[in-house]
Design brief:
- The structure is a single chain.
- By secondary structure, this protein is an all-alpha fold.
- The protein folds into two domains: 1-32, no CATH class; 62-122 and 160-293, MetI-like fold (Orthogonal Bundle).
- It is built from 13 helices and two strands; from the N terminus they run αββαααααααααααα.
- It has helices at residues 9-41, 58-65, 67-98, 105-117, 120-131, 137-144, 159-184, 188-196, 201-212, 214-229, 233-238, 250-259, 264-293, and strands at residues 44-45, 53-54.
- Strands 1-2 form a two-stranded antiparallel ribbon.
- Strand 1 (44-45) and strand 2 (53-54) form a beta hairpin.
- Helix 4 crosses helix 7.
- The longest helix has 33 residues, at 9-41.
- The termini are far apart.
Length: 294
């Protein structure tokens, strides 16, 4: 057609290259290079201050014998087993409530999401006060009820569940939003047909809501798993891995190896092993979730 320029494939390719250049640079500088450098560290001993020393498979051999790393993984699994079901149930419950036509719905949605955007350090300090044995809010409430105070963060049995509850409080708002998006994408005519058939509220949830939310449930489980295995700020700020290393998470252990003992090569080895483990867990978890819903 007249008045239209002929397309120049070479010029379009050049323009496309310039457009993807920022992302390519970001990928190379902040992902590809650190990943390659970390892989190199796996086969070296390096304390930052002296040159690298080739050690071959020594770091991997040490990892296999490292009982403390296994303990840290176990602690992380305990946290995940408590945190994920609690977060999933609470997020779905509040999403169902906020999806109803209630007064102040917008205010409550913003309120539930607010902890997500607050710094994890700030939240940890707040919950340190809540969990305080002498003057904490929870123990004061227990005292008013005539019940004994509990050592929330100084008991091996209670420390990790306490951290899991706090982490759930902080992150549940994000998953409420995800569930709300999933609920609002369900066609309304399905509920209208169910009403005509005389279905109860539970039957509609069982046969319509939950099956239609399956993609959202899988997404929430995957994101919760990745976030749960990344546990670091809460034990670092609140318990420093105690008492008796009962809240020593895998990421906190890797951090200590790198920045407390300057064992950068061994920390890189731990990081690679842990990342592969998390990837395997998420993959299995996703397949199981999708298989059950099929």
């Amino acid at each position: 057609m007249r008045g239209l320029r002929k397309r120049n494939p070479r010029g379009q390719a050049r323009a496309a290259s310039w457009m993807i250049l920022p992302y390519a640079l970001h990928f190379l500088v902040f992902l590809a290079y650190p990943l390659a450098f970390t892989f190199v560290l796996v086969f070296h001993r390096w304390d930052v201050f002296t040159p690298m020393e080739w050690v071959g498979l020594a770091n991997i051999a040490r990892l296999v014998r490292d009982e403390w790393f296994l303990r840290a993984i176990w602690n992380t699994l305990v946290f995940v087993v408590i945190h994920i079901p609690l977060q999933l149930i609470l997020a779905l419950f509040f999403a169902l409530l906020l999806n109803e036509k209630i007064r102040g719905r917008t205010f409550f949605r913003a309120t539930y999401f607010l902890p997500v955007v607050v710094s994890g350090v700030v939240v940890s300090f707040v919950w340190l006060q809540i969990y305080s044995y002498e003057s904490g809010l929870l123990n004061q409430l227990l005292a008013l009820l005539g019940l004994p105070k509990l050592p929330w963060l100084t008991s091996r049995a209670l420390a990790m569940p306490s951290i899991a509850i706090m982490a759930t409080w902080k992150n549940v708002g994000l998953y409420i939003v995800l569930f709300l998006a999933g609920l609002q994408s369900i066609p309304s005519y399905l509920y209208e047909v169910a009403d005509l058939d005389g279905a109860s509220g539970w039957q509609k949830f069982r046969w319509i809501t939950f099956p239609m939310l399956n993609p959202t449930v899988v997404l929430v489980i995957v994101l919760s798993t990745i976030g749960g295995f990344s546990l670091f700020i809460e034990p670092y700020m609140m318990t420093d891995g105690g008492p008796e290393n009962s809240t020593l998470s895998a990421v906190l252990y890797i951090y200590r190896q790198a920045f407390d003992f300057y064992r950068m090569g061994y920390a890189a080895t731990l990081g690679f092993a842990f990342a592969l483990m998390v990837f395997a867990v998420v993959l299995i978890q996703r397949r199981v979730s999708e298989g059950e819903a099929a």
